[in-house]
Amino acid sequence: MRKAGTPVFYDAKGARKKWLTAICGLLCATLCAAAAWLVASLLLHPVLPSWIALPDTAASAPETSASDPTIEGLPVRRDGSGEVLAPRVVRRSSEPAVSLLHHVGGGDPNTDLRTVLTFDDGPDPIFTPQVLNILKQYHVPAIFFVVGKNAEARPDLLARMVRDGHEIGNHSFSHPDLFPLSSFHQDLELTLNQRIIQAATGRSTSFFRPPYGGNPEPRFPSEVVPILRAGRLGYVTVGQGIDPADWQLSILAPGVQTSRLRRARTPEEVAERVVRARNDGHVVLLHDAGGDRSLTVAALPLIITRLQAMGHTFVSLSDLCGVSREASMPPVAARDRVLVAGNRLILSILWPFQRGLGFVFLIATFFGLVRILFLLVLVLLQWPREKRRVFSDEYTPTVTVIMAAFNEEKVITGSLRSLLNSDYPALDVVVVDDGSTDDTLRLLRDGFGDDSRVRILHQKNAGKMAAMNRALRAAEGEILMLADADTLFPPPAIGYLARHFVDRRIGAVAAGVRIGNASDNILTRWQALEYSTCQNFDRRGYDLLNCIPVIAGAAGAVRREAIIALGGFSPDTLNEDMDMTWQLLRAGWRIVNESEAVAYTEAPNTLNSFIRQRFRWAYGTLQCLWKHRDALGRHGALGWVALPIQWLHQVLLPPISPFVDIVMIYSICVGRVEAVALFGFVMLAAEAVAAAVAIAMGAGNPRLLPWLPLQRIGYHPLMWYVIAKSIFVALAGTAVGWNKFARAGTAEMGGDGATQPTAERMPAAEPVISG
User: Fold this and answer.
1) Rounded distance, CA 238 to CA 751, Å?
2) Which residues are part of the catalytic machinery?
């Protein structure tokens, strides 16, 4: 049980920090060990058998080194016949080096009626099981050239292929064009896929088919070089003599010359193309993944039955080459067993983890879009209500501005002068110097000591909450204006806020806070855009439901009797303004937003200052969420809308944010650029629409909008670090101070470049309407 007055999460004994440090250390060590294991698995090439009897001239020839650049220009020499190629680089002292491609696999297709079905690009969770079911129904063997990125997600399908008597070939990990890649990169592609096959099946494969290239008689460097590289690792390359182009789903109608007039291909046409090409070879190329393969699935029974009716026999690729499956797909070699066992353990964790990441990615995207659209609808509904509000000049309650100051010598004078220049008639200021070690106190006394509207109090340094409570006790106004020592107020701002309190139901009013030093650098411009399109925008929407998350301590107004009834400002959290706001809502007060009341604050203009400020905000928000956790599902929209959104976007989604990034980076690496681009476009488009609406409502500078994409990209890792750190510190129970950043004194009114609102007071005779 937390003692009264003790900050939320604080663990005086430090026991939680010790346990958390130990757990994190163990987790990091485990991850490092797993990463080192996987790296070792990739750098140590799998042991593959040499099962094809090569001619003596090739068998005795030395293999080229992995870094040999000369293989691209070597002449190609062939011997044997068949669609399976065993490559070697032959070097003789008396002759130039040549690329020897030894062909095996079957005799003359006109007399040797053995046929091998091959399927590329799988496994696919939809079409591969259908293909396997058809093959099982007709008792036909096949070989599946799998892509590692797909096999990694469905190892169960690889296991089923082997269990059903089929063979597996290596089709690279990410399906790139291998020719432009370096030898090392191609080796990684094949080795990573091989390790996945080994972990899923307990067997290795020596069959390889390069992506985008299955020519049984390769001639060009783009075809030969990947084959020679694979040969160095012990692979034989499988071409195809029969290619019905089953991936082509539509064709031009007869007599039609324009590509716009196409018709869908039929399964009969695919099967007929295989039948017509039956004498071109023994190996049929089909696809079970890489797009819509329903045409292949429908054509497969026709291909099987028609070729069988013509006397063809379907055999495995090993049978066609005259070897057993144990020779071409042997159990994992003794040297690799330990590595594969470790890989199987790691991948058994990574496979469900990867599926979970995909689910998390969808959830994060969904809730991100829902939040944007939800707030956009609220803002569009609230905007006309704001326009209809009418106020009276007759109501002018007394207002006391309360301010805590600690080492604010660069900004305190400008802030107080802006307050005293207000056009509000019943105004005074209480400022408490919290033991400043600079010239703050001297500047206050020299500049405002003789002003009857300003009371200057001094105390030993006791923290912001103690200073604010000291100011609260000294304040006499009916309405208290909250102000930071760097905030600049245009003359009408206080009056815009005070006019709402004519409604006795209203306990607090939020002002629109903007950045006064947006021109400092790119970081302050980003913050100016964020304040306009996120913070002020959100408050405007939440106003409709009476669940504004926070009355900013930089600029806001609160009814004095309401804050006194709460017992003043609580020391429980670093976000005293958010804590106060939620307490007021729980006490039944109404809180409204006043967009016309604008104040300008100084934003951190260095990365270190920015992180310090945002850490305090993030940690304080966690404290408030935990303190008010019993309000979930209660107290109207606060417990049903505002708090769940805060929990979701401040606690639950941020820790998984880096994993969403991992999914995106992984997707790009494996060639799913279109999906990532679509996701990015949808999210950015939604945010751009909301930002444009916010700017159009007069909430900021439209010239900042082009910064939006870069801001979202740049903010993302910074905010993840801040929130991750705040969660860690909360779990550890470490004491956290105010984390105040040093002021630069560069803020000024209108410093975000936006047009200031110019709303007018309405005549006293008009009816008074609020909310």
Assistant:
1) 68
2) 120, 287
Q: In the structure, what pLDDT confidence band is assigned to residue 341 with cuts at 50, 70 and 90?
A: confident
Alpha helices per DSSP H over 202-265: 221-232
Residues 6+ apart with CB under 8 A from 265: 248, 249, 250, 251, 295
Lowest mean pLDDT among 206-220, 222-236, 684-698, 748-762: 748-762
Residue 672: what residue type? R
Q: Environment class of residue 698 by beta-carbon count within 10 Å: exposed (0-12), middle (13-18) or buried (19+)?
A: middle
Closest alpha carbon to 242 in 213, 216, 266: 216
What is the rounded distance in angstroms from the CA atom of residue 390 to the CA atom of residue 371? 30
Distance CA 307, CA 314 (A): 9
Q: Letter for the amino acid at 515?
A: I
Length of the chain: 771
Strands 95-104, 262-264: pairing is: unpaired
- For residue 317, the Cα-to-chain-centroid distance in whole angstroms is 43
Would you tell me the crossing angle of helices 127-138 and 155-163 to the nearest 10 degrees? 10
Which amino acid, one-letter code, is at 626? W
Confidence of residue 720 (pLDDT cuts 50, 70, 90): confident
Tokens 């967009």: give the residue.
Answer: 595
- C-alpha separations of 653 from 28, 97, 292, 378, 530 in Å: 21, 59, 33, 23, 19
Give the whole-angstrom CA distance, residue 427 versus residue 299.
85
Whole-angstrom Cα distance, residue 517 to residue 7?
Answer: 33
How many Cα atoms occupy the beta-carbon half-sphere of 689 within 13 Å? 14
First and final CA of the chain: distance in angstroms? 40
For strand 95-104 and strand 283-287, is the pairing parallel, antiparallel, or unpaired? unpaired
Calpha distance 195→203 (Å, rounded)? 10
Question: What is the pairing mode between strands 479-483 and 555-559?
Answer: antiparallel
Copy the structure tokens of residue 354: 């990867």
